[in-house]
Amino acid sequence: MDWKSVADRIVGVIDLKNHVAVHGIAGQRHLYRPVELSRFASGSSSRTIDGDAIGLINHYRQRGIHRFYVADLDALSGGAVQTRRLEDLIADSHAHHRRPGEQWILDVGLNENVDADDLAWLLDLNRRSCGSISWVVASESSLSDQTVSSLAKTIDPASMVLGIDLRQGKLNVGTTGFAGSKKNDPSADPIDQRTVTQRTVTQRTITQRTLDQWVESGREAGVEAALVLDVSAVGTASGPAAIDCCQQLHQRFPSWRLISGGGCRSAADVATYLEAGCNECLVATALHR
Q1: What is the dihedral of CA 56, 59, 63, 69, to 10 degrees?
Q2: Model's pTM, two decimal places?
């Protein structure tokens, strides 16, 4: 099995830090370095990327990939959204490389405290993109279990993707955690009774909460897409992760658009995600080599 056989199901990953495309490894963002393509991956010993995001996107395009996931690491770390750079990537100054039907998934750290100017920019970009952009609302960025419903008041839920951020199988949530948990409620319809590991962030302890609560908050807000990502597998070439979670989500919500990835080494690993019920699979490192 080669990459061409699954290219139409692959989402090429661009981690964007200070306008530069960087190589993510296990969520350790302080270790991220500009992306470089190997001679084999680029097809030419003279071709370099050196963190050029548009160059990386065009590399994916040459592989037959027409879906892209961009994580704005500046925004995800509490900084400003890279609005100009994101628009440049989507518009692409090398417009002749663009192909009809390209789709974009953007993660800019959305939560209910989104800046008014950023929200206005998002809504305007949505209008101009004619449905080609989806926005991640990630558990990692959440402030409460009301994050999704709060955003859904102004952002069309059809353009939202529920981000299920895992670390070694446990849900990763924002610094204030979730309120009003139904943890271990036997009457709940759980996807999984795994709970969030207690951790302290800025001297605040996050209370244990269930993965099911986060998924329910998305369903109740009208979201019908999810991105499941175990960050501990990202960039490690360790093989597929979060397969059990993907299978459970697909069984419970068979009509949802389901995206996952992390650890992919080959087209066969992509096929493993697809067999678990995923519609699409994120790939980065394996396509850089």
Answers
A1: 20
A2: 0.84
